[in-house]
Design goal:
single chain; mainly alpha; six-stranded mixed beta sheet; 20 helices; 6 strands
Amino acid sequence: MAREPAKPGAPTFLVERQSGGAAPSAPAQAHLLATKPHYASSSSPPPRDAAGGGHPIDELLQRVSPALAAADWLAGRLEPCIGRQLVRVRTPSSVFAARESVRRVEGDEFAAREGVHVALAFEMLADEVRRAPINLAGRLYIQQLFEKSARTRQLVYAHIARNPSVAHVRVRSPVFVVGLPRTGSTHLQALLSADARSESLRLYEMLVPLPPCAPGSARARARAARLGAQKRLMDVLAPGWNWRNDRFHHTLMDAPEEEAVLLAGCGVSMMPYVCLGGVGTAYEAAHADASSKRATFRFLRRFLQLASGARRGAGAGADGVECRWVLKSHYNALWTDALLAEFPDAKLIITVREPLQVVQSFISYSIANLSFVAQHGDGERVSAARGVPRARGARRRAMPREARACGARPLSLIHI
């Protein structure tokens, strides 16, 4: 990656450009292979399609297990008769149960105003899910995501309310990687996190934050192993789900991960938004509104304070040098005003990639990740109802004239 000079008057932003086909340096390759071993799982790249480099997109479409497919078929017959969904996605009770703890930590005014934003975000997203063509397995999956993320926020605030000293831990000049999805931001976060003076949130601690435990501890390893086993159970719902998703975003419970997992507890940055947000919906407008994200970044600060305390207790920073947090979430690019209001000393890194590759890769990843929730196993039904045709048309219009003339289909290939 070649570093572009920062523009005068914008010292907060560090701009990084990822060249289309440039190979990473030898040290970068070594670190990526150490932290992401799946890149070394094949000695040669998979065969490419003759039309322009890629694999048939049919490989990405998920299918639910036969048992769940039968349950979905039965639900499709029963629900019209009873006039309601058998599994109705709704706002978790933890959203409202957290209000007292938030009030004790943040004050009455903050809790009252921002609590409305959080509850409204959950309700609007739940409404999108209820109206979308999602199968029974998908509704179960999304409701579980709602419950777990909201419960995490409730537990963290309850812990801080009982231990007020946590709210006084300093968070020094965090670094945020905020480029678009599929622009190399995961690689960049892994590289920056390899520095001994840097820290990143691990997936296990965002999923199960209490009791706090530092990375590498026996408790952390046991927690990561248990959560990893639970993640593998997704293959019961959708056979091959882990393999397909790891082709795009390989996740390890004890490795750095983006804080979107954590911020879902505020009703934002959830994976269902990728295919359910739609174009022109109320949720899309609310999700992009930075003025309603104060609670989101305040919760992130509190979680960083909690995680910093766990690391200090394990000896991190014992040499007197404070570690700097390296964080990554693509959604943060929508809310930079709110982010910098909460973290005025933050540094932002923007990753950039050739736009057509970004669109192609992002659509492929969305299909691979969530096509199993489509009603009756039709993996394109959700995307057809939720705005992918617009991306498809933009992709085709941007294709070279020669490619259009020979009949190349922009979504017939995947791009990782």
